[in-house]
Amino acid sequence: MNTLLLLIIGIPMLEIYLFIKIGAKIGAFNTILLILITAVLGVSYAKFEGINTLKSATKNLINNLIPIYEIISGAALAVASILLILPGFATDIIGIVLIIPFTRKLIIKLFSKKIKKNDTEKNKKFIEGEYEDIDDK
């Protein structure tokens, strides 16, 4: 089955399950309040981290360096903000993990190694052929 389809079906099911279990323990009002608090605090902290990432990218550009990590980090922060805005505990946990600089760096390293490995495996294709120098005369 398609991974995206599993995520579209699985994540809401997990969130509903967690709403029921946590809501039974702490109450419906506290559950809703907790969801709102994590959304507001998470997005404000994501904004703070985004500004820090932008400052770091600017420093790299001033030093004539390409801010690759900062671009990827900014994208991770955008995804984290979306996950924090979505109501749910599982998405909040993933969003918080992406916002924390240390864990974000680890996740980016993990994915970059996986992408590099896939790229090197795909680029092992050889094309054989012959060539001939053609003079303008």
Structure, described:
The chain is mainly alpha-helical and 137 residues long. It contains 5 helices and no strands. The chain has one domain (14-118). The chain has helices at residues 3-26, 28-62, 68-85, 89-99, 101-122. The longest helix has 35 residues, at 28-62. The model has no long low-confidence stretch (mean pLDDT 86).
Termini distance?
61 Å
Radius of gyration: 22 Å
| Helix percent band | over 70%
Please give the number of β-strands: 0
DSSP summary: helix tally: 5
Shape: elongated
H/E element order: HHHHH
Kindly give the count of domains: 1
Task: List key phrases describing it.
137 residues, mainly alpha, 5 helices, 80% helix, elongated
Entry summary:
The protein has 137 residues and is mainly α. The protein is built from 5 helices and no strands.
Secondary structure layout plus pairing:
Layout lengths: L2 H24 L1 H35 L5 H18 L3 H11 L1 H22 L15
Helix pairs in contact: 1-2, 2-3, 2-4, 3-4
